[in-house]
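Lest this sound abstract, we let one protein speak, letters for residues, whole numbers for local backbone shapes, and leave readers to judge:
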Amino acid sequence: MIELAGLLIGLLLTLFIYSYLIGDNPLYRISVHLLVGVSAAYAVVVVVQQIITPLWQQIQADPTSPDSLIWLVPVLFMLMLLARRLPSVSWLGNTTLALLVGVGAAVALLGSLTGTLWPQIVNVQPATPLQGIVIAILTVCTLLAFQFTALRPRSGGVWQPAMWQRGVTAVGRIVLTITFGALFATLLSTGLILLAERLNYFITELVQRF
């Protein structure tokens, strides 16, 4: 009986999620809220069981050990981050936020360089030299599209990029548009395939049970 109820709830939530295809509606929002709430609760339980509880037990067992003292640093940063909820001492969390943003940006930049850009330069073997040149030019234009934009300097007015810079930006945006369009089409087709697979699974299970 419990398994049957789980199947029915899973089927309903799946249909609620895919109801967004016909527009935003309360059923979709209910399913999203459930997903966010359950995910947050699961994350809290995992953090308590795997981080906070072992750390507390370790500190209780030997408070003066080097391992226990090292944990004081992340705990201090965590408390400083929680202090942002208090207006009088909210400035204490700025250091933690700065470290989070800085480390996150550095890791993302290093990952994009070593995991995406550099392998493409080293490992990609185009069929013809012309194809390699086109790939390199489009890659550079896409990266520069985020740089050559209009700026408003402090002295007033608007700085406009040169003609060739606007051309590079246009090419980069075209490449981004085509890429995002292809990714969206792939995502949509994948979602429909997953929907068909899940519906087939639910129908098969219900037929077997009845």
The mean pLDDT is 79. The helical segments are 2-18, 26-61, 66-70, 72-82, 93-123, 129-144, 163-209. Residues 83 and 142 are 40 Å apart (CA to CA). DSSP finds seven helices and no strands in the chain.
